[in-house]
What does this fold into?
Amino acid sequence: MTDNRNISYGPANALPGDQIAITTNPDTEPFWEKAKARTLTACQCADCGHFRMPPSPYCPECQSSNKSWPELPGTGTVFSFAICTRNPKNGEDYVYVPVVVELDGTDGAHLVSNLGGCDADDVEIGMKVAVDWIPIKDDWVLPVFRPA
It folds into this structure.
């Protein structure tokens, strides 16, 4: 068994935008269009108010297909994270931190993203974060997070 208590990872980076491509569908496109405008949003049921991320055709609470896309404050709390040390595209040394962020302004909706702007060693569950934006392929923009 390896003792990892003395490992130091250094700065957390966002994955390079030129390596990230997305696809959209009618349920996700409003999220990505708002991201292009650097506005964070989440899918909310227009009938019962329940937030759902990722967006889906029907609300899991009331089965309504009516959606709204309210503007969120752009902040949240780290719910979960991992420290990765290899670029998934080419296997090169590269420290990045995938996070699950509980979004402020929702009833507990989560967004999977990346965290940068700090040392990977300093990331912890409960950490307050704020959204940042990086351009990715095909003129889309990806929401990522940094410490608040």
